[in-house]
Each structure stands twice: as C-alpha cells, then as structure tokens.
Amino acid sequence: MPAFAGAGAAHPEDGGTEEGGVARIEPLTNVDLWPPDLSAWASGNGGPSFVHRFDSSVPGPHVVVNALMHGNEYSGAIAAATMLAAGIRPWRGILSFSFANIEAFGQFDPGFPVMSRYVDEDMNRVWSPQSLAAGVASVERQRARELWPLFATADRVLDLHSMQHDRIPLMLCGRSGRGRDFARRVGLPGIIVADGGHAGGSRLIDHPRFTEGAEGPVALLAECGQHWDPASAVTALSVTARFLLAAGIVDAAALSPWLPSDDPPPPRLVEVTETVTVGTERFRFLKEYQGMDVIPTAGTVFAMDGEVPVHTPHDDCVLIMPSRSQAERGHTAVRLGRFVA
Ligand SMILES: [Zn+2]
Fold this sequence. Notes:
By secondary structure, this protein is of the alpha/beta class. The protein has eight helices and 14 strands. It has two domains: about 5-270, Zn peptidases (Aminopeptidase, 3-Layer(aba) Sandwich); about 275-340, CATH 2.40.50.630. Helix content is about 20%, strand content about 25%. An eleven-stranded mixed β-sheet has the order 1-3-2-4-7-5-6-8-14-13-10. Strands 9-11-12 form a three-stranded antiparallel β-sheet, with no helix packed on it. A hairpin with a 2-residue loop joins strand 11 and strand 12. The relative contact order is 0.16. The structure holds zinc ion (ZN).
C-alpha cells in the first residue's frame, strides 16, 4: 500500500466497496474524467467557503445544488462549476451552489483515485439532527455543521453523486411522496429509486426537514454514473438543468446548453423493499451483478453472508447498486426492490 493510503483506503461506496480492505488502485487515464479546478469558487460569496448564493430579490423557493458530498465524486462539481462560470442566476427565489467535502476533494490523487471519498468519516451519514448537534468533531461533521444553515433554509436540494461501478444513472428520492413527485417532475435520470437510506447513518436527503410531514422541502440525490466516466459529467449537467427548470427559478433559455432537446420519457420507479446490510466479515455475491439486474424468482440465493445464504424476498427482484467486492460489516451490500407502475 502506498503511504498515501492512510488518508482513506477502502472507504465503502454508496453500495459498493473496495476489494477486501485494499482499494482497487487504477490510475486515471486520458480517457477518464479529471477533477475540475475549483480555485475560482473557494472564497464563496459571503457565507461559508465554496458556497455561492444568488438572491433574485423576487419571492420564490431557495434551491441548493450540492456537489462533492464525497470527495472523489466530482462530476457534480464540474456541473456546479460550469453553471457558476456561465453566470446562471435565478429570476425568482434564491439559487445556491455548494461544494461540500472540499477537504477530501483536496486529497484527490489521480494515481489512486478511489482514496478521497472522505477524510474522517462518510459525510453522507452525519445528517441526522442528533449527529449534527453532537458527537465527534470530525472534518466531515464540522463542515456539515457549517453547511447546515444553508440546507435548513432550502426548499429544494439536489445532491450530486456518482458511483464506483454502476453506469446507469439513478435519482434517489427517499421515502417521501413529495420527493417521489418532484423526482418525476425533474424527469432525469430515467430511473427513480424510492429508498430508506442506510443503517450506517443519515444521508442529507433523509433529514426530517425533507422527509417528515405531507408537504415541505424536498431533497433528491442523483447518482450520475460512474465516478470517472466522462458521461457522468454530462448527466450531472442535464440533471441539474432539469432540476432548476422543475424548481421554476431559472429560465429554460439560460439552461438550454444542458437540457435534452426533447422532454425525456416518464422515469421508471423502483421501490426498495429491503436493504441488505452486511453482518459478517465474509459477505460475497455469488456472481458479478452490474446494478439494476432483475432476478425473476423469489427465494433465489444471490449472496452469502458468512455461512448464511441471502435470498431474493420476491419475484422480479431488482439489485440496486450492489457492492462488487467484500463489503464491510454494518455497511449496505445492496438494496433490493421492484419496478412499480
Ligand atoms: Zn456519493
């Protein structure tokens, strides 16, 4: 292992982990997506560093586009920086762009690109009111506390992520009906996943502000594709453009460089029926799943957790973001779900 590995080797992904505690190390090549230069946005514009807020002075919603919740997932940062550089402004309401885990992003090394997901802990597991109020003073929790006033005033949040292996983009809308409805209005990516989060801690989109009550603010999490696939930056831009359009605060003409020429077909919805959390040191899938695989028959054994077989609980079971290798105990190995009409 390189000396660098101490900064974050083998951090589990959202539903994907590194090989047996040893990170899969493949340097970036010239066909990969490379990290953006964010130095122009470092100082922010009056609030926290790397946060830019634009108030139209016309009443309307506060919309936050958040990138870099995970330091190695920079397709969303490319989207946010592109829109900042293009001077995208709201005609009503408030538009904010934020780059969350700048410390982890700053550790990015193209020779070891899996290593900069976080510094001390996964930033997308610290957003419960309890975690924000108390607990360890990790790099991530301190930044989350600094950013929370931004999200606490947001009516619409788009949290931009990417995936270790999977290339099919997904919109995660959590459990709320309003999250599902708004994800349908955004319309991209073409698959919406209604899920309940992770046993390991609360994501931003799971905070009660965005989940409790019949009406209220909405937060969505877009998985824009594979971390280093250039297509993930294109997806992040088109999803962000559609999100701002659906939020009704930016003109379609201003967003036209990134909007698809035609309205996308209605997205398909997958309801998560079960989250499989790793219980032993030896969890393994019986074959390599690509993500969004459908296993037709209930009771099919698709993984072993130590000596315990893991079955599909129902027919037509969709495997969402399966980890491709040894997942750590207590982390999510895969979500199971079904397509619903
Ligand atoms: Zn992520």
